[in-house]
Amino acid sequence: MTEIMLDVRNLVKEFTVQSAGGSVMRAVDDVSFTVFEGEALGLVGESGSGKSTTARCVLRLIEPTDGEVFFRGKDVVSMNRRELKAFRREAQLIFQDPYSSLDPKMRVGDIIAEGIHIHQPRTSKDDLLAEMRRLIDLVGLREDHLNRFPESFSGGERQRIGIARALAVGPKLLVCDEPVASLDVSIQAQVLNLFQELKERLGLTILFIAHDLATVRHLCQRVAVMEQGCLREIGSRDDVYHNPTHPYTKSLMAAVPEPDPVTEREKVQKRLRDKKREAE
Asked: Which SMART domains has this protein been placed in (predicted)?
């Protein structure tokens, strides 16, 4: 039986909006889901739906207002500083923007080694160098890239560096916060393929956040759909794609482009016919 790696229960996050007279905004509203060991779960929804806030609460980068988060049965919300450090070695975040998430003043090798220095400070120089070489090769870059600065790389290459940095501490869970959203479509496919390869090769568990269903189609076994801070629907990839139950999910599905132009044209025509019937 597959073990549950991440168990999120009734998660709530509220913010006080000073510009609105101190009113309280609920960004995450009673969200519950599980992520099984070895799977990739896609968390999708439009901008502002609460996806990234949920991810940051799960990792305790921000404190949840209410609810529970369990990682391999351990209560993340009540962890002390020492326990939280150990948890963050096992659960790493991949950022959305590969341009702002890398320190421009650090060489790539130092960026990748940073987590090792924090979590494995007794690593020898020879072992550290060997590990940096292994990681840079793992994400499809070259050893000579270790001595260069981030400005020398494209967006897709920078995201690969960010992935190598996250993998340096040997995590079991990757939380990917829209990691391909700022990349060109052709580069998106390459990075998604890399995630798939790493998942299979390293046995990773992935919580993959995206704003459209097309991005998670080939990577994720299950899909959870968020809107206005609420979880509207969760199910297998086939169920969500081919038989969505919530109106919001149906609207997201209608916006997913089909690679076949004939199929896409038929879908658009069907959507127009449905709208016409609703108007009548």
From this structure: AAA
In the numeric block, which tokens belong to residue 46?
A: 């439009």
**Secondary structure (H, E, C), 203-260:** CCEEEEEECCHHHHCCCCCEEEEEECCEEEEEEEHHHHHHCCCCHHHHHHHHCCCCCC
**Tally of CB atoms within 10 A around 132:** 21
CB 59 within 8 A of CB 67: no
pLDDT at 261 over 50: no
And the tokens for 192?
């998604």
Alpha-carbon distances of 149 from 178, 191, 217, rounded to whole Å = 23, 20, 33
The residue count of the chain comes to 280
pLDDT in tens, 56-96: 999 999 999 999 999 999 999 999 999 999 999 999 999 98
Please check the confidence at residue 265 and state whether its pLDDT lies above 60.
no
**The one-letter amino acid at 99:** Y
Q: What are phi and psi of 246, to 5 degrees?
A: -90, 140
Q: How far apart are CA 265 and CA 76, in angstroms?
A: 48
Query: How far apart (Å, rounded) are the C-alpha atoms in residues 117 and 109?
Result: 12
Q: What's phi and psi for 228, nearest 5 deg?
A: 50, 40
